[in-house]
Amino acid sequence: MKDLLINSAMNNIEKNLNYDKEKLDIIRYGLSSLYLTVTKAVVIFTLSYFLGNLKPLLILMTLYSILRLTGFGVHAKKSWHCWIASIVIFLLIPYLCTILIIDYKVKITCGIICVILLFLFAPADTEKRPLINPKRRKIYKVTSVLLGLLYILCSFYIKDNLISNCFIFALILETLVVLPITYKLFGVKYNNYKNYKKNERRN
User: Fold this and answer.
1) Fewer beta carbons below 10 Å: N end or C end of the chain?
2) What are the extents of the domains in the chain?
3) Per-position DSSP letters for 136-200, written without gaps between them
4) Angle 161-178/134-157 helices, nearest 10 degrees?
5) How far apart are CA 82 and CA 78, in angstroms?
6) Which of 16-30, 77-91, 121-135, 151-165 shows the lowest per-residue confidence on average (mean pLDDT)?
7) Is the pTM of this model over 0.85?
8) Cα angle value 85/87/91 (rounded, 5°)
9) Taking the CB of residue 109, how many other CB atoms lie within 10 A of it?
């Protein structure tokens, strides 16, 4: 189904738009990513609905996505890795957010560790999207750290246990996806902007 839809779309694009091979490869990659994202979202949201965890899932995903916009992070090399990780994370963690009562000292401690790690490792790019602009990297880093501090405050001051937990778990999730060890576990390259600069010098 995936190949059929993407090939059909690419045929239409090639007929109607005069793009070179490099541009077409980028479009194909984007369509593949979009297909994976949409199908994964449908499955996860459907399962979450039947498990009664749709509300915490929506809150967690929203908070995590905001952090991801500036911190970025690892993308699984293989689609089945992505499927397994996404299903485990976005079905298990929303459930934990609903049942756990975390002491504020633990939240603050975890939050501070996460902010320090974000300062050290965010933004974390990918091979397909190396963040080569130094100024932009600095902006992303500062924004990620500030958002992390805001999430700590929200998790501490918000009285609703579910929402408070979602803030701290979203922060933990984003921190995990920017760590070098996570990249190593998924078998993907880290600090891709440095490799890009090396290749640029050689050329």
Assistant:
1) C
2) 1-51, 52-202
3) HHHHHHHHHHHHHHHHHHHHHH---HHHHHHHHHHHHHHHHHHSHHHHHHHT--S-HHHHHHHHH
4) 150
5) 7
6) 16-30
7) no
8) 125
9) 12
3-state secondary structure (DSSP) of residue 132 = coil
Work out the pLDDT band at 38, boundaries 50, 70, 90.
confident
Q: What is the pLDDT of residues 135-153, one digit of tens each?
A: 999 999 999 999 999 999 9
- DSSP string for 48-103: HHHHT-HHHHHHHHHHHHHHHHHHB----SSHHHHHHHHHHHHHHHHHHHHH----
pLDDT at 122: 94
Burial annotation 39-74 (CB, 10 A radius, 16+ → b, else e): ebeeebeeebeeeebeebbebbbebbeebbebbbbb
Place of tokens 């979202």: 41
